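Data availability (excerpt). The following record was deposited with the supplementary files.
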Amino acid sequence: MAVSQTSVHLLPLLVVGIACVSSLALTTSNTTEVQHLPTLHNSTASTPANGIPGSCHGINLQDASRSMWMAADVFVRDLTCKRSDANASLSEELFLEMEQNIRHLVDSSLKAYLIQGDNQSRADLLEIFGVLDSLNLGDYRDPTFIRLWFSLKMAPLLPYVAQSFLVQLGNQNFSCSSYQQMMESMSTELQKTQGVDRELIYSNFIKVFLSRTNSPEPGCKDKSTGSEEWLQRNIGIFLKFATIKELKEMNNNFSAIEVLEKLSLQQKAELILDPDSGALEDVNFVREVLTSLKLSGQDEQLSQFFQTFAQISEKKNITFITNAAVRETILNISLTALAPAFEVFGAQEFQLWFQVYLVPVMPGLRPAYLWVIPKDISCASYMAILTGLQKTLNFPLPLELSMGINSSIEFLKETFPRCLTPESFTCKETVVDENLLCAEVNRSLVQQTLAADNSSAALCSFTITEHACSVADQLAPQNLATLLKCSLESQTTYPVEAWKLFFQKVSSSLNDTLQTFATMTSNNSRPALSNALDALREVRLANLSDAELQSRTVMGDLVQRVIGPFLASPSTNFLFCLSSYNFSCLTYQIVVKELSNQRQLMNSDKQQAVFTYFIKLFLSRKESSDPGCTLSSNGSQDWLQANLGSFAGFATVQDLQTLNPHVSTIEILSVLTPSQVVQLLISAGSSNDTTLIDLAFDRLEKCDALENLDEFLTQLSVNGQVGPSANHGLKTYQS
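Predicted structure:
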């Protein structure tokens, strides 16, 4: 087998090196590690004159391993010296090969030591082999020495480094070039070494060294051309363990935006919330940070980012982000990215996002953002979102934000009526903080202006809030009605708090004002009317006695002439609260009739809400003296018209039978919708009641027969099949 030229040079050197250990021990007895290491003088083995051991008793392979490490010390010192000698005859390739062979011997000796010995603590192991003390063998400000020292002394023990060792290492007076050489060597070593605690190295060596203020080059930043180069040379693969705050402390010139692509998700979250970055006031900066993420709802990046975002916000006591543009940018980008994932989200995921991750931006949530929520989510998922919105109202929010959250809650309830039960509702009452509401109102300006000019133009130049906070109680009913007209026509949406304070201030003339207003405007449905109607309920209806609630005169006048112009815009809360009032069946029917008169002004969601949150809830009340209001009705059709009005089509046949157990489906069949006819036929199952079937198809022939048939067939395909007689009737009808 051929022996390389390198090996011919190397083996004698190794033998000499090991043999020199004893003399090295004698000449350097003041160094700690040498006192622990065996020498050829103090070996316990006996060797006869012929050189052949007489007995292996007393031989300790651990001593041999440590001797090999001392030999490595000699090579670190001497090879460094040789490499720096301009007259050295050895080539660079030879130096590298020698280093690799010595490293192989060192690794093998360490393995032998570990096999032979008891478990040693990390600190003990590095002390036994004198790793730190071996730095004194050369100039540790010299990168060449540090590279060789790391390769032969520290790298083999890298998996065993302990906190105390790393802290001591970080306090050595390395030059920046030698420290950077060590970082380069360490990064290379870690690519092939397992079981090393990298965060331990960052926290106790890198951060310690770069944070020192007493070094010649604190932070090693002077020779770097920018933040990216500084990171590469001084932090490298350990970047993910650093915080933005630590990076800025180590390098006061550090710019996170320069290295945005290199930052972890956690660091990006910290960057946005860093007060020194100015991100919370800079929309473009926030957008750049967020779009640098791989925004895909199918991976974990977005959730990891927002998990850290929420945690840091809580630590910094950031209740919510106050800059509206920044808040909406975060909401828009994140919800758009999450939209595909919402399709497969369960209740737990919705809870995490709407009750934890998005908390700092939840106050900016408006109905438009909720369109991304799939309509087929579970009711548990719906409740998770709703709870997040309701918790947001516990923040000390400005009125416009609380109004947006209330609108979102309203939208959510209207979108998922199937998830709402009477037990899940509460009749929410509005608390008015006049000092907060009026804090920015210039009352004297309103008073002075209207004292000089009470024309319509002057009245309408101020908002409802400004009037409520100043001289509303001094205005005549005619002027108040004019103010209402122009305010509502302007489509300006005021919070319920503002309307409630306004109506409270003018309560003595409120009926006259609203009756005058009713003559000035036609009934219509506008978003601006909904909050006004909520406030009217709290100021007028909520204060009525039971006798007034059960008076046909009082209620007829109230719903027709007072709140009539607003009734086409009922909120879910308004309807639910209305269902809890102690109406008699007759006064309840007055309300239903007036709502029916305005049904055409409502969108389909509002129409459904009237049935779900008012009619169904009121008629389901068991404590009533006449549950379902069935006693005063003259037959099933009369009952249906009086108690459900034009909203009867939103009930299922099962609803009708539950609300009135005595209802005759035959009697009401002629007024049922095609969808309800399908439900009726399916409930009949395999019945051969030909009378019912004939009546059903007679109903379909009324009005627009083709449209009725289309709706009938569509509903039939959704709900299933009917009995054979009905199928026969359908074929006859189609022919």
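Summary of structural features: Residues 92-116 form the longest helix (25 residues).
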